[in-house]
Amino acid sequence: MSPTLKAHWQLHFCVLLWGFTPILGALISLPAPQLVWWRMGLVALLLLAFPGVVRGVFALSRRLFFIYAGIGVIVALHWLAFYGAIKLANASIAATCLGAATAFTAVIEPLVTGRKFIARDLWLGFAVIPGVALVAGGLSSGQIVGFVVGVLAAFGATLFTSLNKRYIDGADPKVVTALELGAGALFMTLALPLLPHDGAIYLLPQGKDLWLMAVFVVFCTALPFTLSLVALRHLSAFVAQMAVNLEPIYAVALAAILLGETKELTTQFYLGVAILFLAVFLPPLVSRIRLSRRKADAATVETMP
Fold first, then answer.
1. How deeply is 258 buried, as exposed, middle or buried, from its count of CB atoms within 10 A (0-12, 13-18, 19+)?
2. Is the entire prediction scored with pTM above 0.70?
3. What would the pLDDT profile of 15-30 be if each residue is shown by its tens digit?
């Protein structure tokens, strides 16, 4: 198996696991800021316990240390917006908003990584906009705020994915993940008192939140976040984001089954989701058809006398 194909499989496995994150975010009763704080802090502590990770963090140059720490703050803001969207609207809407990240990535990745703009990426990226617009048009007035916050989360996802793509070769993925999420947890520790809150600031998970948080931290954060950084070494940020667009599909299906959110959503919403689905699957299908035709043409030329 080629490194690129292996990276594709790794990334799609990560996306499947991420499909459960909106569900867990809705099921865990903690407010969004505290949820993000616990998620980042526990994952950082878990990874720092691995042999060589602490040594790897201190072995980084000062420049890379602060770059990864800065990316971690962006990750914290992304998750804060994403889980805020879940609490303000619902899991299906928040996950679907991530489809807008494709359009953002088509523009932002070339600016961050220094590569040329690719026309195909631009039109594929902006092809998801009608789907996102239909989703927005199918929402009630009370869900619009959650939708806007979800789009901001998509922008944050684009930014940290593009930055990780540029700097991922600077250190081991476990070291990068531990530093980024540790920096994000520290940022949230300082930010929590400044954010709106009702009562205690540093809430502790209790009851069912304890085991839900354990699943959240290990299987939906530490494992996929680290594995996605490994995959990014062989894939562009745009290709990765196109794969991540499957997360809303998984999340909407899981939300319908586990949370019963179908009653809250309209036909227009599902039409928008269908467009996002096509934007993910149609380009690879067209590429495979073209590749098959090229191979067939080449074989024909070789057999000609």
1. middle
2. yes
3. 889 888 888 888 999 9
